[in-house]
Amino acid sequence: MNIEMKKYIFIAFACLFGNATIQAQDKVETTVEADVVSQYIWRGMDLGHVSLQPTLAVSYRGLTLEAWGSVGLTDSNDTREFDVALKYTTGGFNFGIGDYWFNEGLDPQNRYFRYNAHSTNHVIEANVGYDFGPLALQWYTNIAGNDGFTCCDHRAYSSYVEATAPFKLGGCQWQATIGAVPFYTTFYDAEGFIINNVTLRADRDIKITDHFSLPVFAQITGNPSSEHAYFVFGFKLKAF
């Protein structure tokens, strides 16, 4: 077999396996999982005690449609939440829009299908960000729904910006996060620029059997603005 023939055979195999890889990446992926957390802490704010937080998501070619919820397991007064989000990621760049519904808001009857601007429990939020590898930046802004107000009682278009740095240490996946509210809004109880989220989190898989591991995490969160601190433990249940 001459060199030219070998080259053609190599190219044919490369194309074959390359197409197989592309087809594998083009498959629709479904995520079914749930987190159990000792405390529901969101952007440095305490939203509840022990909570169950399920996720159902469908992804295709960087586009993800996701449903996420949270319900308290020990206190009926804890926040109940149901979110639906549409996200798109390409390379390090991502953007999306989310519809967050809470059991407390402008509607005393807590009706889910009520979107009137002055009597809804929904918050519509847009986000954009970029993952540089050693550091990821994300910006979130409320664009509709039950938003907060400025000092002049106008819609605040409440925003939150976050920087996250992942790293490995001691056999765990770590993540350091700092988050801030850039301007006045009653939504975050911010009378101007505040730092409201400083978090250090460690994730690790605990091996149960040769075929099953339980992902667990622990995180310490401080809110310099409210002067509160929280220590949270959680684990993930995932359908394979």
TrEMBL record:
Tell me the domain of life.
Answer: Bacteria
Put simply, this protein is called MetA-pathway of phenol degradation
Organism from which the protein derives: Xylanibacter ruminicola (strain ATCC 19189 / DSM 19721 / CIP 105475 / JCM 8958 / 23) (Prevotella ruminicola)
